[in-house]
Design goal:
seven-stranded parallel beta sheet; alpha/beta; single chain
């Protein structure tokens, strides 16, 4: 009997994380839905279960290192780790205060680092596993007002290359998906629509389109893909 694969998706109660959780569940993977809001987490779990999937909610504030390590310990062995949690900040470089800068690094960079440090070695011991980091086109191109946010996403791309070198020889595939503008509910639809018009496809993506690519990267169909940064940005970084 084939054992059900398990995926931990951070920041899975909304946006791209929610879309990824739903897509992975459709593929028969049990999804551990991480978030901070139990009501929103329960709603995503219910949505997955209503569609015939399996899911559990796991609460943790990933900006808290102790809570992060507790989460890693509580989930045990997972087959897929999606490092999606984080937030963005855009504005003049001189306007970014120290506390927000530190929060940005903790949420976007440190959480991915320590979750991978806890879970990827277990995958390597079993000889298989998948780590998917949520990057951004902002990590690949220059955007005015996005220096700090872009740096966090560039860090995830660097993590991907190094973790692939470290873990892929033992069967763990590590990749970054780098979306362009996506409707997630976190930014104004008007500004995202305008940004979408700068892409070759002249539109902004839906969160489900990004979730489907994450599900592909987690699947056997992507079995020869590791150490890559996959642009899902309507061709924006191609130009």
């Amino acid at each position: 009997m084939t054992q059900t694969r398990i995926a931990l998706v951070t920041g899975a109660t909304s946006g791209i994380g929610r879309a990824a959780a739903l897509a992975l569940a459709r593929d028969g993977i049990k999804v551990l839905v991480h978030g901070r809001d139990s009501d929103r987490g329960a709603a995503v779990v219910k949505e997955i279960e209503s569609a015939g999937g399996t899911a559990e909610f796991r609460a943790a504030d990933l900006a808290d290192v102790h809570a992060l390590k507790q989460l890693a310990a509580s989930v045990g062995e997972v087959d897929v780790l999606v490092n999606n949690a984080g937030f963005s900040w855009f504005g003049p470089t001189a306007d970014l205060d120290t506390d927000t800068f530190d929060e940005l690094l903790a949420a976007n960079v440190r959480s991915a680092y320590y979750l991978t440090a806890a879970l990827a070695p277990q995958m390597a011991e079993r000889g298989q596993g998948v780590v998917i980091n949520l990057g951004s086109m902002a990590g690949q191109i220059g955007l005015a007002g996005g220096a700090a946010y872009s740096a966090t996403k560039a860090a995830l791309a660097a993590f991907t290359r190094s973790w692939a070198a470290e873990y892929s020889p033992r069967g763990v595939r590590v990749n970054t998906i780098a979306p362009g503008p996506v409707y997630t509910g976190g930014s104004s639809r008007e500004s995202l629509t305008a940004l979408g018009k700068t892409t070759l496809l002249s539109r902004t993506a839906e969160a489900e389109e990004i979730g489907d690519v994450i599900a592909f990267l987690a699947s056997p169909a992507a079995g020869y893909l590791t150490g890559a940064v996959i642009p899902v940005d309507g061709g924006r970084t191609a130009i």
